[in-house]
Amino acid sequence: MSELSKMNVEYRVDAIRAALKHHPSLLKRLLNDNQDGINLNATVEALDCDEPEDILVRVAWDIWNGSGETEFDKILHQLMPDDYEAVLNSMKKFGKLRERIYSAYASGSEND
Q1: Contacts by 8-11 with C-beta closer than 8 Å and gap 24+?
Q2: Averaged confidence pLDDT in the chain
Q3: Distance (Å, whole) CA 33 – CA 105
Q4: Looking at CB atoms within 10 Å, which of 9, 45, 68, 101 has the fewest?
Q5: Is the pTM of the predicted complex or chain greater than 0.90?
Q6: In the chain, how many H helices and how many E strands?
Q7: By percentage, how much of the chain surpasses pLDDT 90?
Q8: Residue 68 has what DSSP assignment?
Q9: Are 70 and 62 in contact (CB under 8 A)?
Q10: CA dist., res. 96 & res. 48, Å (int)
Q11: Which residues span the domain enclosing 32?
Q12: What is the 3-state composition of the chain as percent helix, strand, coil, each rounded to the nearest 5?
């Protein structure tokens, strides 16, 4: 795994941890046994959570996949204030990943 790929996974996991900061039991189920990647079996359907945890699981998968379908309206209006702040903080962490990836490609140091 390239250095950029390792960094990509690390930043995504950090962003997911930030988003689920107030839901440690959900975070434990969502991450793999080593807590260094997502549990591929922990899908939205498999976890079958009620809101707001359902929204947070969708956000986590969106972070992991780098895109997604979480409705921004749900994040704005249905999450409790502490969860809303946690999602915003996770986006800041995800922004750092984007900067690092852009920098690596712009400098030519990573070509994969």
Answers
A1: 8/97, 8/101, 9/36, 9/37, 10/36, 11/93, 11/94, 11/96, 11/97, 11/100
A2: 87
A3: 32
A4: 45
A5: no
A6: 6, 0
A7: 46
A8: -
A9: yes
A10: 31
A11: 3-105
A12: 65, 0, 30
pLDDT, position 46: 96
Cα separation of the two ends of the chain: 10
Q: Which two structure tokens, joined as six digits, stand for 50?
A: 């009620």
96 in a domain, yes or no?
yes
Tokens of 27: 């975070």
The encoded tokens of residue 60 equal: 């986590």
User: Any bridge partners for residue 38, and if so which?
Assistant: 31
Q: What are phi and psi of 71, to 5 degrees?
A: -75, 125
Question: Any bridge partners for residue 31, and if so which?
Answer: 38
Closest to 30 measured CA to CA, from 5, 53, 52: 53
Which distant-in-sequence residues (6+ apart) come within 8 Å of 53 by Cβ? Answer: 23, 26, 47
Q: Is residue 112 part of a domain?
A: no
**What are the structure tokens assigned to 31, written together?**
């991450």
**59 within a domain of the structure (yes/no):** yes
Task: Reduce the DSSP state of residue 31 to 3 states and report it.
Answer: strand
Q: How many domains does the chain have?
A: 1
